[in-house]
Specification:
Blueprint lengths: L1 H5 L4 E5 L3 H8 L6 H7 L4 H9 L8 E5 L20 E4 L2 H12 L7 H4 L1 H15 L4 E4 H6 L1 H12 L22 H4 L1 H4 L19 H15 L6
Parallel strand pairs: 1-2, 3-4
Length: 228
Amino acid sequence: MTRAFQELDGCVIFDEPLYPPYLATQGFDHPHRLEIIERYETNYEKAISKITGDLPQGYSFSFQKHTANNLPTNLDLDWLMCLDNFFLIRHPREIIASRQKIYDYPKSFTLHDIAMEDLYNLFIFIQERTEKVPLVVDSTDIIKNPSKVLQELCNQLGVCYSDKMLTWQSGMRKTDPVWAKTWYRTIINSSGFLPFTQQEITFPEHLEPLFEECLPFYEKLYQYRIIV
């Protein structure tokens, strides 16, 4: 999704700007942790000030990618009201399987790692504050019909859609964060939305209880997804 919006004229990208503060304060042993902490802003307030302040010269709007578990429970979330929010969801079975591949070693993930409950709670927070249902987009729907889903999303966000969103040049970009080397391998090698293929997704049996925990939150969000 980030690559698609990056193709739009006048769009500046903020790719998980709260991930460095999250790593610095939580102490999790994630790939590239020390490099990330040394290179990026690790103060939550300063990071938020940057993404809610004036846009860089030459840009007319921003696309910000955030993950719900990067937002600590004691953080004031009023700044989110400055943004037009939409929620990108993915089936938890796909998330768990993908995360298992990234780490390349046996690991027991938690509900917080997958962030499905955190995402749902954030959805409810924004719904209550704005008194309207936030936009929801399911990743499978985008893969199946990228042009129509993106057109509808852009229309509801007040952004001019362009077919340029459907393709992009493969490879790393200057705007890609350090962690892209590990987490964005498929995206880096892509040049557009890959055709949808139905695949059997498996992961170690000990992760099945986690999947069962995540599924209800996904299903609650799924009912609000954009349908085209």
